[in-house]
Amino acid sequence: MSTNKDPPATSNVKTANSNTASIPEDGKSFEKSDSKTGSQSDLQTLALPEVKKTLGYSPNGLTQLEAQKRLTQYGPNEIAEKNINPILKFLSYFWGPIPWMIEVAVILSGVVRHWPDFGIILLLLVANALVGFWEERQAGNAIAALKAKLAIKARVKREGQWLNPAAREIVPGDIIRLRLGDIVPADSRLLDGDPVEVDQSALTGESLPASRKTGAAVFSGSIIRQGESEALVYATGSHTYFGKTAQLVQNAHTVSHFQKAVLKIGNYLIILAVVMVAAIITVAIIRGDPILTTLQFALVLTVAAIPVAMPTVLSVTMAVGARLLAKKQAIVTKLVAIEELAGVDVLCADKTGTLTQNKLTLGDPFGIEGITAEQVILNGALASREENNDTIDLAVIAGLKNKDVLKDYQVLHFQPFDPVHKRTEATIKGKDAKVFKVTKGAPQVILALMANAPQVKAAVENAVNQFAARGFRSLGVGRADEDGSWKILGVLPLFDPPREDAKATISTALQMGVKIKMVTGDALAIAQETAKKLEMGANILDAASLGDSKKEETAEVAESIERADGFAQVFPEHKFHIVDVLQKRGHIVGMTGDGVNDAPALKKADCGIAVSGATDAARAAASIVLLQPGLSVIIDAIKESRKIFQRMNSYAIYRIAETLRVLLFMTAAILIFNFYPLTAVMIVMLALLNDGAILSIAYDNVHYKNQPESWNMRLVLGIATVLGVVGPIAAFGLFYLGDRVFLLDHKLLQPMMYLMLSVAGHMTIFLARTRGPFWSIRPARVLWIAVLGTQVLATFIAVYGFLMPPLGWSLAGFVWGYAALWALATDRIKLLAYRILDPIGAAAKPKHNAMAATTIKGNAEPQIETGKPCDLTPLIARRAYELYEQGGRRSQHATEDWYQATRDVEKNAVKDGPAKFKNGSKP
Fold this sequence. Notes:
Oligomer: single chain
Number of strands: 24
Strand order of the largest sheet: 10-24-23-22-11-19-21-20
Helix content: 40-55%
Strand content: 5-15%
């Protein structure tokens, strides 16, 4: 239950009771008090006139000079983040389970006087710390730079002019304007005006907004839910109530489902390494091998097997992805959103500004009982406020033939639009000194006020329906003269044309496995007309028939929500409910929004997206903020997030495969042949070069899938295991050739096996990164250079014998040729493994950018020629759409439609042969 109890207030401005210098009313002199902090709370409770005197209030606001002086004196209006000393941050990379193991290995190397091992292992320790520190610092800087673009702006009066500086530049004594959807930027006292409804749930836990009148305090971080008012700032930054609270709370870092899955892989690899190393130590003890040397080797092997670079690769990939999304005009405020966006299969999109241009134009109005069109427009314009920059208000005012006519009227009071009353209202004094009221808003709301509603209701509803059938939204306009009786004057039609790219983008999204559902507060007829123009399906539900978040829908209603193409007459609680139902039906849901009341739905959605021009509250609740209007930017962001997901998937497969390769080969060689194929130094150099090259996978070229992404652990572990088992087989083959055919000394076998594991391991990167043949996707230049560079270095180390016997160029060339042949063979085995483990995915190979922005009906049929591969994705997309139209989305997951479509297409392709597709037949 809501209460009006205020949080305790603090201030960084001292009161009039303090030992301050006198402060004139113009605010040109404002001296900081030397009094004790105990008097700071007075500015919240002190009488407003006294607060004005203390702060140097002027109706025109502060001067720029005085504002700059106070900014220097009191600092920026922001919460100072706790910055860790860079040196301490760097030293933290030497603390933890993995660094401890490396440090123990260094100490043991020194104890047994293996100084080359000591130096190389120490180098590994320092190198990992340097790389991790640098990349995390770069990632943090990148995210900070992106978030800086989303800095909250404030409306501040300076020298009589309203400006829009960043909120961090607000100072005590500033006059600010608070409107619906604004986040209050600093602790303030309300000035003359109407009461406002303030959501303080983030500060006090109140479940309902609290009403605040003139003179009351509103606190930084709260949200204006209704009304608008001017306010006088009395505390900023860490001296605000929110600032004091925030200093007590440490930043919490959320780990995404994908990161959790990858970390589970890391734990699996650690357990695997510990088990195998324990077996090696046990056998060594039984054989009587030197215990210190064995223990050192075991530690080094464990370090090499553990994915040391995993946290760095994760942070780099996510940061690189965030920068790429920023280039698409999508700012990621929560990195976990990248994963969620890749899996979105249903996107609930606002109509206005997302599917339409949000450029309203006024049509020919409908007038009641002899009221002219000009009168309807004039009264509608009087109920508008140009300085609010509201698109509806601006469209109505623009409909006036001469804007100067407004100068004949004085606005005594203005009540802005809010989602509860759904109308604006103004009290006007005419040039004849008569006072009257005007209002504009939803026609049904205006009719409910009217004394003449019964007489005109049929005519008004008929006009509204006719406008709606043409795609116009309607605004009712009413007027109350001195007798106080409201009368409706007419209806204003407003047209918001669809965006030029919306139709093609919706089609592209569907072919990518993402169903767009239109969400609008407009009437059902308008929504249906818009959907018809965009060819997105005419199954539009009236949200009035839906329940709310507290209601458990029946299976029939839930299915109708799932099958709907859009929703009309939607209120904020409906948005939340729609998202909730779709999530319970097994969908990953994206939701767009721009208003303060969209915040709950944006938080509820798997991926909340604040569209261009959204309120501060909506942007704060969203995971992704768009800087550009339209739907295409969201589709671009989905494509980019799927690419990021693919890079992480490739890394996971490679990391598991490489660990298995090294562990299985080393363990089998030691247990079976009682031979250490690598020295500790070789293992350390192998790990060092691997970690150095794999970082570049964050920049790799990948092809996004035309289906929502999901973490398929069975497939990842399966493919990685195949690659990880084939590797030791190849390694033992080379070991056999060197030992039994070439009769090499064991001292030469070790550098040969080192080069084999290094070269073959890096070739595994190219095998793991593609689902098709390794040449199907050209690697990024940075990846190619990184891998080639590390392998040239590894080859020189082996050939010239750095910390190992020299191998020579002839044997090194043989190793390269042998590894390349096995890589070609392994690639074919990988393709077979994909067919066995994921036959449906292997059949449908999405082609990058195959889904150009064209409508489904306009897609050309792909030609299938004998013996030539064909991209069946357009056919599969078309079949999926047909299944959707036939009611195929009754299953719990949308992807099942795509699976069924793939089966149908593949079945017909095999059954009917290429001729059928050449003729353009449907599957």
